[in-house]
Each structure stands twice: as C-alpha cells, then as structure tokens.
Amino acid sequence: MVTETVATPAPVVRFPIGLVGGVLATLGMDLLMGRLPEGATPPSVAAGVLTETHPDRAPGRLATVAHYLAGAGTGLLFVWLSLATEAVAGTASLLTAAATGVVLYVLMVGFFVLVPLPRAPGLSSDRRKTTARDWALSAAGYLLVLVPAVTLGNQLLG
Predict the structure, then answer these.
(1) Where are the membrane-spanning stretches (predicted)?
(2) Distance (Å, rounded) from C-alpha 23 to C-alpha 93?
(3) Does the structure show a pLDDT above 80 at 63?
(4) What is the DSSP letter of 121?
(5) Each residue of 26-51: b (16+ CB within 10 Å) or e?
(6) Torsion sign over Cα 32, 33, 39, 43
(7) How far apart are CA 156 and CA 158, in angstroms?
(8) Given pLDDT bands bounded at 50, 70 and 90, which one contains residue 19?
(9) Shortest CA distance to 55 belongs to which of 110, 125, 101, 120?
C-alpha cells in the first residue's frame, strides 16, 4: 500500500544511492531532452550564464559537466528532502517518496525559471518560454527515473 512503511538503510548508505540515482536519472533525462525543441538548451543556459555567453555559443563541455553535476547533486538533494519528509511524517513510505518528488519538481523548475534562465544572455522571450516548458518536461522525466530508482535502491539495501 502507498502509506505502508518501507525499510530504508542508514543515511550514510542512502546518499550514495541518491548520487547514483541522480546520474541515472540525468542519463534518462538526456533521452527526453533530445526529443524536445529546446531540450538541449538548459545545460547551455547554465554554461552561458557561467561564461556570460549566448547559450548557443556556450562551451559544450562546461554545459555537460554542469548538467551532470547538477543531476548528481539533485539526487543527493532528493535523499535529504526524503529524510526531512520522513521525519515530519514519522515514516518512510511510497507516499513520502512521491511527496518528496513533487516538492523537488517544484524546486527544480522554479530554480531554473527564476535564476539561470532570466540571466541567459541573448535569448528571446519566445525561446525562453519554450526552454522553460521543455525544462519542465525534462525535470518530470528526470524524477520519473530518480524517485523509483532511489526508492528501489533503499528497499533493496534497507
């Protein structure tokens, strides 16, 4: 059942699970991003902001590194938010994992739309809107991989 308590390992084990889950989810996200009109733009936005360069001319290697570091770090953030959610709920369950995923989705989309995207040099308003929409879809795809991967990893090692 969704609210049934599930076994979880100690936090020292959960964080590496989140790290691996974050990388796997980023790989899954890449598949989705490749199918969207502006799907590949968000990593270039990050690199463009860091180098004060138009995203289309931003360093590709920096975009990739930033993308994968952010993906791995978001896996760690998911674990931390899961621990906080479980502390408030008093239990670890599929419901707390799903609730954490919803909170993380809002944080992922909100952060991108409010911090790097408005600072990206030279993007038109229409392109910003399309990039924001594609990022929202990509973030959902990321979480559709991350949440089950980390939850399953926790149950297997818990």
Answers:
(1) 12-32, 65-83, 95-115, 135-157
(2) 23
(3) yes
(4) T
(5) bebbbebbeebebbbbbbbbbbbbee
(6) positive
(7) 6
(8) very high
(9) 120
